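TL;DR need C-alpha cells for one chain.
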Amino acid sequence: MTRHSRKLINREHLWNLAKIHEEFTAHDLAAAAHRSLEHVRQSIKDWVRWGYAKADGKRGNRDLYRVVKGKTGTPPATDPAGRVIANVTPHQSMWFVIRKSGVFSYRDVAMQANTQDVAVTEEQARDYCQMLANAKYLHVVQKANGKGRLALYRLVNNTGPLPPREKRIRAVWDDNKQKYTHVATGVTNGR
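>> reply
TL;DR here they are.
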C-alpha cells in the first residue's frame, strides 16, 4: 500500500472518530486516534476546506470544530500540495486490515475493509485470503469444515505496505519439457 493509500485509510478512521465526537479539537482527535497533532490538523484543514467540518469557536485556547450535518461519505484527502489523493483499492484496504489483524476469517477482512468509499464484498475477501494462503502469505490456523465454520488465517509473510496481488502474465509452456520456456520480460519464473 502506498503512503497515500495509508493516509486515506487513516483519514477515514479519523473522520469516523470526528463524527462520533461531533464537536472536537485537534488535540481530542490526536489522542483518540493515536495520530500526530500535525496529521490531525492537516485532516481538519481538509475537512473545513471541503465543507465537512466548520470552526466553532474555542475551547480554552484551542480551536473547536464541529461536524457539518448532512454531508455523506468521507471527506477527500489531499497531499501537501493540495491535490486530492486517489481512492484506496479493495486490495489495499484488505491488505491493510490483514496486516493489522492477528487471527482472522475472510468475513472479518470483508467487514473491516468495507467502507463507504471502498466496497469490499465477502467474495472478494474470501478469494483474496485464499490467494494469499496459496502464495504462502497466510497460514491456515483452522480449516473450514463446510458446516458453517470459517477458515481462520494468520499473516506469516508481511512483505510491506503494498498489497500482493494476482497478475496474469504471458508465458510459453512446453508440454514436452514440462516447464515454461519463456516468460514475458520483467517477470521472474518461480519454477
